[in-house]
TrEMBL record:
Organism from which the protein derives: Lentinula raphanica
GO biological process: proteolysis
Endoplasmic reticulum metallopeptidase 1/1-A TM domain span: 416-615
Lineage: Eukaryota, Fungi, Dikarya, Basidiomycota, Agaricomycotina
Keyword list, A-Z: Endoplasmic reticulum, Glycoprotein, Hydrolase, Membrane, Metal-binding, Metalloprotease, Protease, Transmembrane, Transmembrane helix, Zinc
Protein name in the entry: Peptide hydrolase
Amino acid sequence: MTSNASRRLERKPGFVFSLILLSPILIGVPLYSYQQHSYLPEPLHELYNAERKPQISETRILEVSRILSEDIGFRTPGTYEHALGEDWLWDQVKNIKDECEKIVEKSPHRHLECEIWRQKGSGSHRFDMMGARLYKSYVDLGNIVVRLSNGTDTGKEHSVLVNAHLDSTLPTPGAADDAICVGIMLETIRVLIESEDWQPKYAVVFLFNNAEESLQDGSHLFSTQHEIAHTVRAVLNLEAAGTRGRELLFQATSKEMIEAYSHVPRPFGTVVANDVFSSGIILSDTDFRQFQQYLGVTGLDMAIVENSYLYHMRKDVVDNIQPGVAQNFAENTLALILHLSSPPPTSPSIATLTGGFTKPATVYFSLFGKFWMYSFSMAKIMYAVLLLDAVVLITATARSHSIVGALATLGQPALAVLLAFIGSLVGANSVALVMRYLLGKPLSWFSNEYLAMVLYGPPAILGALISQYPFNQVTELQAYHATLLVQSFLALVIQLLDVGSAALFFLNAASLWAGLAVTAILGMISVRNERVSLLTYAVSSFIPLYLGSSSAYLTLEVFVPLTGRIGADAPADNLIASIVSVVGMLGFPLFVPFVCRFQSSDNRMLGKLIVVMTLVTAVPIAVFSARSPFDPMHQKRVYVLRTENITTGEHHLHLSTSDSAPGFEQFVYAVAKEFSAPPMTAPSEPADTNSTSDIASATVGEIPIPELIMMDRYNADWDPMFPFSLFLKPYKIPLHVDTTYVSPWSTTLEENRKYGFTITAVDDVIDLEGGTRSLKLVIWHPGMIWTVIAFDAHVLKWNLDDEPPNEYTRHHVKEASYYGSDTWSIELVIKIPPPSSSDPEAGKITVNFIGLEEEGMWPGKRAIIEGKSASTPGLALKLFSTLDAWITKETGDQVDALLLGCVAGVQRI
Ligand SMILES: *[C@@H]1O[C@H](CO)[C@@H](O)[C@H](O)[C@H]1NC(C)=O
Ligand SMILES: [Zn+2]
């Protein structure tokens, strides 16, 4: 080597050249982690493998989902299709029993028994959500249950419950949510009973629950009333809030169940997801809640989460489910069942869970395709050792060779590290504020899960750079030491608070430690110049980049689509900006040392970088400002109610949305212009007699101005969506109705009516002395589903739960029932004013009521408009078919409207 060349090698590479040298890692690791993140197995078509053994067939799972979501349709609890879905599944389950019996007949030594139940029942439960108190009352809802056991009493004494729901919610065919999981359960049952050597030591109970979307009535019914519910020791809940990717384990409630999960072929779950979910920020919950609350059991809650744009949308159809999703989920589920149903020692026995379970104190995560787990106490020891080792390594590689001397120089550098994080948060959030308030372009990144990184990444870096301005005296080695110290310190402190997510800091700190130790041993760091080598970065960055990028993919996949349904006032842009800067900090812990590497006392390099990053920040702001947040596969959610108030005879269109994107007001005005008309009392409007639609088109100048409604719990307009409705900022438009219209709904109680809505008080007893009134409120609602009543009263006692709030306040009770079941009731004892009160109305209660027309939901009931059903379309359906076509055309299919025909009123009782 010539002396020239060796001198060149000694010279440190410049900023850009360093980045180029590190680029294989900077680019390669995120790509590698994306490949790991998005890996799915090849979907299988055949029912048997080459050795003629049964295997999971994705084709068969998707066929179940297709039948439920397409042939049968929108299975909203209470609808005709909901009942059809249950009948269809009951046939499948009866076939399973027949098959099972044939198999056992052929091999009489096989210890296998298949039992089935069709459960029907009524009940009620309190269901608080989003900070609001709420009650559910349900009538004649159903569950279908299959139990596989070895046929003995001891074999049935302990069981593992596998749950999925058969119903879908209001606007969706629910191919992924949750028909795919119904298919997974059916296919798993087939594979289990056809596997000749499978004989369960413990029973497996499959619950096909047919009322999850009505706020978990089905799982409540099973947990509180089914004869075998008490045998359940553990739960596997199978859900979907998306249509792509591996199913995520987002709740694991005991050490035993985490251990069981470690045996699945393709684990995907971390204690971090568990911590995030249990913080409640995602605002969602599953049947798991009922099993926890009423059965007191532990379990695993798993769900398909990627591409959550289609969650509860009409495009949740089989064609949009990614190939491999079902194969992956089913094979993981099968592995779990095989484990949990077999005797120890191959797995921990679920029988040990009889006496309850302990909250998990386990750190777990999947890294490089492997599942890692260790206890909190182990974690504390490991993290403490690492902190100690960090101090030792810092001392050994510092200029001052005393611990005190080494640590004393780290005050400034540690502050630099801390400020870099704050700077990146401030930078990204400033752009979020600019986008939302200055430019009026919130949600500009919505249509792609990862796009927000392009918008918020540069300002996060810029903010971090600016924060480094005061620290031009900090050396690279000091900054490295400070980062290592801060990360290992945070790991220990957070773990001491029993938060398992501390593992992220531990893994980062361990990599920093390893990188420094290796290059120090190789003699590649310069203690005298206080510099480390580029190789130090190369070694140390691998794990942080992997963790940072995989956390970015997952959190953005969960939170970006979520911003389309968290309400117009939620700070969506700031939420996503903060996520980008946090995952950035996770992925690039060596940002500060790297900047210090090129720092000089005159801040020349830093100044240049700041100028460059400012330009890099500006470009995406400009580009994103011109973007529409929505497109046909990433739609805006719009909620539309067409409500007939049978007390006043008025008809209104109510519109709202649940995101902060601009333009909704204009949209509402356009709808008003196209579909509203002067109120029916307007004298100037002649009755439009020859119109087939009952909505007369408005003439310009007479368009009623949509009224912006301030929501609170006293406004009954949106009670079908209470308490989610409290997050809405809806508009209300009066509708004109033909004078010849005779309402089928406003009838008094008579026999054999198909439609109606009446509330009566029976067993009504007033005790003036005691100051109480006891009564049974009977709600009669033929043709209506999902009825809600709201009233103000001081309830002393009722049959909904044991502890009504001891005050005069508003109560909301929602109902869900089986198709055709048209009355429900609640029993109340309320406080009334003393007898001296001169008010003759004293003791009366005012009940607001509202419900959905079973035949008034679009697009679920499209068949009625298309004449494929015996029913004749009502006002709501007629309006919706044209309104929906208009919306699709006007917005270029960027809007998915949930259209519900409602009937409401108020009664004094
Ligand atoms: C129906 O009209 C009555 C009387 O004006 C009103 O109190 C009630 O809130 C209305 N209900 C709905 C849901 O619009
Ligand atoms: Zn679901």
